[in-house]
Request: fold
Amino acid sequence: MAEADKHSGATLVLGDFNTLSQQKVVETRNLFESRGYSTPFTSGTPTWRGMGIRLHADWIFCRGLKISKWGVARPLAVSDHWPIWAEIDLT
Reply:
């Protein structure tokens, strides 16, 4: 977050945030939104699976950009995480 805050232009922050509880999902979303970021992902979107459990661990947050399409590549089984993706509207 400190590195992203050094930049005033359009910014993407994405990856595995290990938000493996509903409380961590809410805290992470609130932290980013309090700094002007948004995400297309609805809280609770499953991106990780293990032992029959599905959790929202992976995120894409943006500031100064518009995400036009996004998703989770299920049932692609290349990892315990499903790949997440986004298309950015550059117009």
Summary: Residues 2-89 form one domain. The longest helix spans residues 22-34. The helical segments are 2-5, 22-34. The beta strands are 11-16, 48-50, 53-55, 58-63, 66-72, 84-89.
